[in-house]
Amino acid sequence: MSKEKQRLIRELPGDVLTPVSAYLQLNGRNKCFLESSNKHEDSGRFSIIGQNPSFMLEKRNQTYQKVSLLNNHVEELDSNDLTGAIAEIMPKQNVNSELPLLDGLVGYVGYDVIREREKIGSYPTDDSQIADVSFYYMDEIVIFDHLKQSVYVVVTQRENETDNALQIRLDEILQDLQQPASNYLDSYVSLGEFSSSVKKDQFIKEVKTLKQHILEGDIFQAVLSQRFEAPFEGNPFELYRKLRKKNPSPYMFYLDFPDQQILGASPECYIKKQEMEVLTNPIAGTRKRGKTPDEDQALEKELVRNEKELAEHDMLVDLGRNDLNMLCEAGSVTVTNYQKVVKYEHVMHLVSEVTGKLRNDVHELSPITACLPAGTVSGAPKIRAMQLINEAEPVKRAVYSGGIGYISSNYNFDFALAIRMMRIQDNKAFVQAGAGIVFDSEPEAEYEETVHKAKSIVGVLV
């Protein structure tokens, strides 16, 4: 463990600034925004903004590399897996703070990182050419603590940086936060008509093929997805502002990478670690919110009595328990919340929570890839389901169904499941959505479910 880096922290009153205004006021490059809606229990305490990262960790062409954003130097890393690569470029520090992130990595782990651990078949068509893994190392961070109504500006000393240079970076942020946010508004956005990566007839054919595998006992379920794309013009952050307002969620994110922007509002925690406790929260079972309290209650009762929804939910809980049992102390894996109805702005979900205590012989970062992907976006048994998905889907999933979040330099981390999100790249917008195929699935209905899910994302943005 390396010694804690020197850092400067300035506390500001939190009754004037807002996270969005601060994001707009900050003049730095390569900014990222992580937050959680305060409309949900146990959510909403912190909003995190990072800017001016000193380097990136990327995985391209099956090689991890450290890319300096200060001098453009690219260094190929020795490690060929994510855990080793992170340990190489960010040795663990002993950081004790109530704040979740003083410095660390912010970004995503793509779906295909599972190939580091499992053989699921050859790579599908990769027309996006984006990195399988992309993280910024953030050493300039603004954190909103909504519980204490305080804002913390944190700058961490870089290699060979003088104390004076560190102070200058802090002062520049404080100066930015005194400027009016209205100077930075650019509200123009235009989304064209969406088209799919797969024809309807082909999707239905793949559903029938997966159903045959289920009838033969090969799998119980597989999540088949399709990707939609549309022409895009304008400021991607404006899309995020609309999304956070119309669809507040436990995990909301906006990541501004050099080659793409990623924005989303995910309801589901993929994997989280605090000290040695790891957590995942499977979600399955959905109903729309009622227009009246009586209708809302009726829909909730129908959801909790629906045998098909409950069976699918139990399967995902079992997958979560199996994932954590591989990593955690014997007897420590517990279902701490079971089939709890959680209500969001537009829908309600059945949500469970599975926790466990990480074993001492397991690397603290291992859960990030060991649990990839969540059962919600793969199926069961997980490996066989992914092999069949690999055969059925025509294009690489990329970020979709991976994880989006942060890794603190003390190796605590928190990742949203990468669903209900949009990628902007080369003046195109990409949305992906899946449906869980089971033995009694109706192919036409499963196709329509993916279309409906995609439209529900796009609908709040236009």
UniProtKB/TrEMBL annotation:
Its EC number is 4.1.3.27. It holds the Pfam family Chorismate_bind. Residues 15-153 form the Anthranilate synthase component I N-terminal domain. Residues 200-453 form the Chorismate-utilising enzyme C-terminal domain. It comes from Mangrovibacillus cuniculi. It catalyses: chorismate + L-glutamine = anthranilate + pyruvate + L-glutamate + H(+). Its cofactor is Mg(2+). Gene3D superfamilies: Anthranilate synthase. One of its GO terms (biological process) is L-tryptophan biosynthetic process. It is an enzyme of class 4 (lyase). This is Anthranilate synthase component 1. InterPro entries: ADC_synthase, Anth_synth_I-like, Anth_synth_I_N, Anth_synth_I_PabB, Chorismate_C. GO terms for molecular function: anthranilate synthase activity; metal ion binding. Part of a heterotetrameric complex that catalyzes the two-step biosynthesis of anthranilate, an intermediate in the biosynthesis of L-tryptophan. In the first step, the glutamine-binding beta subunit (TrpG) of anthranilate synthase (AS) provides the glutamine amidotransferase activity which generates ammonia as a substrate that, along with chorismate, is used in the second step, catalyzed by the large alpha subunit of AS (TrpE) to produce anthranilate. In the absence of TrpG, TrpE can synthesize anthranilate directly from chorismate and high concentrations of ammonia. Belongs to the anthranilate synthase component I family. Keywords: Amino-acid biosynthesis, Aromatic amino acid biosynthesis, Lyase, Magnesium, Metal-binding, Tryptophan biosynthesis. The keyword Magnesium applies. It comes from the Bacteria.
